[in-house]
Amino acid sequence: MILAWVISPLLLGSALVNQLERLATLRIVEVNSIKVAHANFVAAEKAVLQCEKSISNLSTLEENHCFIEPVGKNLWRITSKEKPSVQIHVRVDEKSGLTKRLNWRQVFE
Questions:
Q1: Spatial separation of the C-alpha atoms in residues 97 and 83, rounded to whole Å
Q2: What pairs with residue 76 in β-bridges?
């Protein structure tokens, strides 16, 4: 009987250590996933910003990192090719050629 009482806390202790190791591993995976997702999100936003800045002269773009679609008169929809996709709508002023961002959203598939 005493042997069972001695073994049971040892087994509980080893189970606790095992669970703590699993929890620490999951936390490391979570932190790395957040870092990768943040880096991809920043890259997608930079691509959209680059396309937004050069929307008035699309023919001179050497590399296009986004999809650009006309939505209406002087309205454009810009969607990044990078994942996660970022989509914005911009209005281009006819006279000055300046762009104004109307909205922003993350595109879910």
A1: 29
A2: 70, 90
User: Which residue spans within the chain are E strands per DSSP?
Assistant: 66-72, 75-80, 85-92, 99-107
Alpha-carbon dihedral angle through residues 50, 51, 56, 62, given to the nearest 10 degrees: 90
Token code pair at residue 43: 């890259």
Q: Tell me the Cα Rg of the chain.
A: 26
pLDDT digit string (tens) for 57-104?
765 666 778 888 888 888 989 999 888 889 999 998 888 878 888 888
DSSP, res 61: -
What is the model's pTM? 0.72
Q: What are phi and psi of 65, to 5 degrees?
A: -100, 10
